[in-house]
Amino acid sequence: MPALAIRNASSKAVLLPTVVVMIVCFYGSILWTIYISFTRSGMLPSYSLQGVAQYVRLFHTARWHTAFANMFIFGGLYIVAAIVLGTLLAILMDQQIRLESVFRTIFLYPLAMSFIVTGLAWQWFLNPTMGLQHFVRSLGWESFTFNWIVDRNYAIYTLVFAAIWHGTGLIMAIMLAGLRGIDSEIWRAVRVEGIPRWRAYLRIVIPMLRPLMVTCVVLLAIDVVKSYDLVIAMTKGGPGTSTDLPAKFVVDMSFERANIGLASAGAVIMLIVVLAAVGPYLYFELGRKNR
Which residue spans traverse the membrane (predicted)? Predict the structure, then answer.
């Protein structure tokens, strides 16, 4: 018993610095940001409270409304499309196809690149003067036009294309691991009952992978929240502010406009949105387990 107690105490002592750093740097930063959002901070932090003035100013800023709406357009399309495409690719890979390792490498390769590299690559590809439009016109189709990246009405969708290309491979890998973990007895029962394979995936297998689906949604949502680098590399928020996202708004307010208070208010709203999205699921899951 003494040896076991010493071993347990040693393991806790090893983990203690990590826990302290996490509490101070992570949760401490969140609390500091929330506090600063209620102050009149400009270029430098100010600790004199002024109530919700920064939040009132934030919701009267047209650029914030654009960035906030873009987050839902970009995030909704990206998460749904990446999960659907990634799951379909995983199902195809689960059919024991030839050269499976080669295809896995091809689909996972974009994940090895940062969002900066992805954004630069897609910026070149969609550039009307040197990318896809220029290439197709050089083949003789002079009327071909694909200039979404410079059209303020469609530019946000080009970010979706780049993000899907970057993130679909990760979803494929996660879902494929789940599919390979399905009990073989289930497939044997499916064959005995004569259930079509597509219906077995749709009605039996995919519902069993719901925890993995939730993991995928969380991972993709993190990409949406921290999508600053993709926007900077690909469109810099333009044309105008048509591809602005909250992450870019917060960074610009902090370092270019020297308004830490307004930036902190934007960051707090982003945190509230994340909690509002994840909270109901956690409540449902924890309640279901308790029941």
Answer: 14-38, 67-93, 105-125, 154-179, 200-222, 260-284
